[in-house]
């Protein structure tokens, strides 16, 4: 069975077909999606990159106020339960950012770009649960470090990702101190290898590609000094924490009497240029987009494009897309939950305003002890943290609104962010620096299928409308529909059941 | 005989089984002699010094003037040195019959970072350092269980958790998973998936698990509370599963611990008591429940009547197959100079020893496997006091 270019392009390299949207007809159109995407202003963080950066000092104030209150035993309570405004503020910001990501991907015409953004966000994985401040940094990281850089060179993307404060927090770089640096000798502190190990094992060369533990350790020495300014979240270099001397990584020397950020940049450039790195990255792209067992010739064509074009990622993507073997056999991969949920919302043309976070359920019986929290209704779009406009701001102005009973004002929408948690792929919370598992066996399980079917039923009930199941089948699976599905949908006992079968079908859950 | 007993008592609770037209294809194969292991991950860092208080250590009152309890305030003496928090009073009958025990001053090798994220990573992966292992120790253990009939594990969560994640197949099913199929609808789904092996396998497993959980819940309303989770785990362990795992959250008691400690402790008691109530006595006798947490909390109470992230913690053992009625471990004391970093209970026991001992005791996994792929570098102490008999 051979499937048309458009159907396969939308399924394999995008977030699926949507009625009324013409799928890409050529490789160039897919590449254009990437170029357009890179030029877009990221829709998250919800308050914009500059807005988020401007809010850091207020988050800091909340964190410090909370710490003081804990120390002094003056934590405010509602009905015996402590109310932590820092926690409420960061959680609400995280929820809003997550919802915006889903909303944006659902409505984006640049499916391939969005798939790539998720791919790189998984490759350079960080997690919102690593530390409290990561809740308001993960969206910023994707917006600042990844999205603008995924059509440039790999080295550029590597540098932006690895040196972003969110990555430095996630992989403990701020705790890594040269033991013989002035700071290290004074405080008796030492090395943390976490970033160095993942940089080589996950981000660049790949596990088992020939480096040794000594290389990891030496790379960790090279990385010492790389840090960020607390509560400003700008990357900086602290020479007082850098391990002095020359460090030998994979046959090259870095450092010297005077250490500087140049050493870190040189290490990243050298790792980006390694043949092991391009093989690892190209292979991983094919394994993610096409098949778990990537054909050697596709990977080789991509490596060649990489080498000829100085690591230009667009040329690497193009080489993948232009290879005929990238267009073989539909449905070799399972749609992971994020991919499945987005494709489902697109399939039923769910309006984006139905994908907002929901207001918290307020317990009307609880009352606020004391007068410090002004209970107010939170309107969507209103910043939770008010914009900075001077130091004399009253405390109550800083946080827009916990609920009257002292809780986070919004909660996850079960159609989007909520179901991703249930399906085992909470947004921006991968289980480890290695990101999400790629294999079919992880995502096609009994529990997964039951939960997907439950979500499909809810979705169809609310948004199925008067759609004809056969029309939906044609619109979202087109020539990828299998005979079993066509027959089952045509013979469905009800309209809702028929619509559900389309989204529950193996081919809708594969790509 | 055992099989009849467990099977009958299991079915006795299943009023609607006979009414279910789907009942026939399910096998309720409870093989006699099979042991069970339940792990409960206590997320958020459980305060072991609050749950099992060393009232015999004179430093406790000095470090925790508000949070430590006396017998007048309800502390229940266990052995003259340790006392149980009154929130856990429900466990006392099991303590007296040696079906509940504790291991104190225990910790993974995780030190000084005190991050929930990294702490849970080490707790569940079983590595000697953060991110050293990428899969869960309980998953890796499955393949090394000598008897293949004992290799069936279930993660009773809405999503699979690291401790049971890895190369070996594990069922994932939660109280909220419910197919709610009409009969004709099921036939449609079977036709939809019949030519896709991955999906048709998943669907038959889902149908089986769903039917099993319908029997377990017997038409009762399904909640997502800990009693529902424990009930589902017990039901699955009454069938073919030999390993079950789930989590209890809410232990991060930085503030107002005199109140905030109550809910998670009640949940833990509910989980243990539900397992006991739902498992046939013969199965409970062969069950070990191991409740573990990523690290303990500071020896000193903080300014908010709470405690902060620490190191040495507490593990809870329950079931007929554990060495209960005892607080195991070497007490490091809380006196000045003996605290780790002048703040935390100093660990005297590697938590991986306890986990390895349970795998060794329940499934006969050889010590060399335990020290190789499950807990790399660990040398199992087969003389540990918490090994039963």
Polypeptide structure, described:
- Chain A has 511 residues and is mainly α.
- Chain A has helices spanning 5-12, 27-39, 48-72, 85-107, 111-123, 138-146, 154-162, 165-170, 182-187, 194-203, 213-223, 261-273, 275-289, 296-308, 313-322, 337-347, 395-398, 417-422, 440-443, 446-463, 469-476, 483-490, 495-504; strands spanning 77-78, 81-82, 226-228, 235-237, 245-249, 252-256, 358-359, 410-411.
- Chain A is built from 23 helices and 8 strands.
- In chain A, β1 and β2 form a beta hairpin.
- The longest helix of chain A is centred in the first third of the chain and has 25 residues, at 48-72.
- The two termini of chain A are 15 Å apart.
- The model of chain A is unreliable at 366-400 (pLDDT under 50).
- Chain B is built from 14 helices and 12 strands.
- Chain B has helices at residues 2-12, 48-51, 59-63, 92-96, 116-125, 137-142, 183-193, 197-217, 226-238, 257-260, 262-278, 281-284, 351-363, 367-374, and strands spanning 36-42, 52-53, 76-77, 83-84, 100-107, 153-155, 171-172, 243-248, 287-293, 313-318, 327-328, 349-350.
- In chain B, strands 1, 5, 6, 7, 8, 9, 10, 11 and 12 form a 9-stranded mixed beta sheet that branches. Chain B has a 3-stranded antiparallel beta sheet with strand order 2-4-3.
- The longest helix of chain B has 21 residues, at 197-217.
- Chains A and B meet through α3, β2, α10, α20 and α22 of A and α5, β7, α7 and α8 of B.
Strand content of chain B: 5-15%
Tally of extended strands of chain B? 12
Please report the number of helical segments of chain A: 23
Mean pLDDT rating of chain A: 91
Number of helices of chain B: 14
Largest sheet of chain B: 9 strands, mixed
Multimeric state: heterodimer
Strand content of chain A: under 5%
Helical fraction of chain A: 40-55%
Overall outline of chain A: flat
> What is the typical, i.e. mean, pLDDT of chain B?
88
- Unreliable stretches of chain B: 1-32
């Amino acid at each position: 069975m051979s499937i048309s270019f458009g159907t396969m392009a939308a399924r394999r390299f995008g977030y699926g077909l949507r009625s009324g949207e013409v799928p890409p007809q050529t490789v160039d159109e897919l590449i254009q999606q990437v170029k357009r995407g890179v030029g877009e202003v990221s829709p998250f963080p919800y308050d914009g990159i500059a807005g988020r950066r401007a809010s850091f000092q207020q988050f800091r104030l909340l964190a410090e106020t909370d710490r003081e209150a804990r120390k002094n035993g003056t934590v405010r309570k509602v009905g015996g339960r402590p109310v932590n405004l820092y926690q409420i503020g960061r959680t609400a910001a995280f929820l809003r950012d997550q919802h915006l990501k889903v909303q944006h991907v659902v409505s984006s015409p640049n499916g391939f770009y969005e798939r790539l953004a998720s791919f790189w966000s998984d490759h350079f994985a960080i997690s919102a649960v690593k530390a409290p401040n990561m809740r308001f940094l993960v969206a910023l990281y994707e917006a600042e470090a990844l999205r603008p850089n995924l059509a440039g060179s790999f080295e550029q993307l590597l540098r932006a990702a690895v040196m972003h404060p969110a990555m430095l927090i996630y992989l403990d770089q701020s705790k890594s101190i040269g033991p013989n640096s002035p700071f290290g000798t004074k405080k008796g502190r030492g090395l943390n290898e976490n970033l160095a190990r993942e940089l080589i094992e996950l981000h660049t060369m790949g596990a088992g590609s020939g480096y040794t533990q000594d290389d990891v350790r030496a790379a960790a020495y090279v990385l010492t000094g790389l840090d960020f300014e607390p509560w400003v979240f700008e990357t900086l270099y602290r020479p007082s924490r850098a391990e002095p001397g020359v460090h030998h990584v994979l046959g090259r020397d870095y450092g010297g009497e005077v250490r500087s950020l140049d050493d870190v940049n040189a290490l990243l450039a050298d790792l980006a240029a390694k043949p092991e790195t391009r093989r690892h990255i190209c292979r991983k792209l094919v394994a993610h987009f096409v098949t778990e067992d990537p054909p050697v010739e596709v990977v080789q064509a991509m490596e060649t494009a990489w080498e000829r074009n100085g690591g230009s990622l667009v040329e690497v993507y193009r080489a993948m897309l232009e290879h005929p073997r990238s267009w073989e056999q539909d449905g070799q991969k399972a749609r992971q939950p994020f991919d499945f949920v987005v494709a489902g919302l697109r399939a039923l043309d769910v309006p984006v305003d139905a994908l907002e976070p929901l207001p918290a359920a307020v317990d009307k019986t609880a009352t606020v002890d004391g007068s410090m929290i002004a209970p107010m209704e939170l309107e969507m779009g209103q910043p939770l943290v008010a914009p900075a406009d001077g130091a004399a701001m009253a405390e109550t102005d800083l946080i827009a609104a916990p609920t009257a009973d002292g809780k986070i004002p919004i909660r996850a929408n079960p159609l989007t962010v909520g179901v991703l948690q249930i399906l085992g792929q909470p947004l921006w919370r991968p289980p480890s620096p290695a990101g999400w598992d790629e294999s079919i066996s992880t995502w096609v399980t009994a529990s997964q299928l039951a939960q997907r079917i439950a979500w499909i039923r809810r979705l169809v009930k609310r948004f199925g409308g008067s759609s004809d199941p056969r029309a939906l089948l044609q619109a979202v699976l087109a020539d990828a529909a299998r005979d079993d599905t066509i027959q089952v949908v045509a013979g469905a006992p009800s309209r809702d059941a028929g619509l559900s079968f389309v989204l529950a079908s193996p081919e809708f859950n594969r790509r | 005989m055992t099989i009849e007993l467990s099977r009958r008592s299991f079915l006795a609770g299943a009023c609607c089984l006979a009414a279910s037209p789907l009942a026939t294809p399910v096998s309720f194969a409870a093989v006699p002699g099979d042991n069970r292991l339940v792990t409960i991950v206590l997320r958020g860092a459980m305060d072991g010094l609050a749950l099992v208080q060393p009232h015999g250590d004179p430093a406790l009152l000095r470090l925790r003037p508000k949070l430590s309890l006396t017998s007048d305030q309800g502390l229940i003496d266990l052995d003259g040195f340790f006392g149980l928090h009154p929130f856990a009073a429900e466990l006392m009958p099991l303590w007296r019959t040696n079906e509940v025990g504790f291991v104190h001053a225990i910790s993974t090798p995780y030190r000084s970072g005190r991050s929930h994220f990294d702490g849970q990573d080490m707790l569940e992966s079983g590595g000697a350092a953060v991110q050293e292992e990428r899969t869960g120790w309980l998953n890796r253990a499955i393949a090394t269980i000598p008897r293949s009939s004992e290799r069936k594990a279930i993660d009773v969560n809405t999503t699979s958790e690291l401790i049971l994640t890895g190369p070996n197949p594990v069922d994932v099913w939660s109280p909220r998973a419910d197919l709610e199929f009409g009969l004709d609808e099921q036939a449609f789904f079977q036709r939809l998936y019949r030519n896709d092996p991955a999906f048709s396998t998943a669907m038959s497993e889902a149908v089986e698990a769903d039917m099993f959980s319908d029997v377990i819940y017997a038409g009762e309303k399904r909640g997502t509370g800990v009693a529902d989770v424990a009930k589902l785990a017990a039901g699955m362990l009454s069938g073919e599963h030999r390993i079950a795992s789930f989590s209890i959250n809410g232990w991060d008691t930085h503030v107002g611990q005199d109140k905030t400690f109550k809910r998670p402790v009640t949940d833990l008691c509910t989980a243990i008591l539900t397992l006991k109530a739902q498992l046939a006595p013969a199965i409970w006798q062969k069950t070990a429940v191991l409740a573990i947490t990523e690290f303990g909390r500071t020896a000193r109470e903080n300014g908010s009547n709470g405690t902060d992230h620490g190191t040495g913690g507490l593990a809870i053992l329950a079931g007929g197959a554990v060495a209960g009625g005892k607080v195991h471990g070497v007490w490091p004391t809380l006196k000045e100079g003996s605290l780790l970093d002048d703040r935390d209970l100093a660990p005297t026991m590697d938590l991986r020893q306890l986990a390895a001992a349970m795998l060794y005791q329940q499934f006969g996994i050889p010590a060399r496997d335990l020290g190789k792929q499950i807990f790399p570098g660990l040398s199992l102490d087969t003389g540990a006091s918490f090994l039963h008999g």
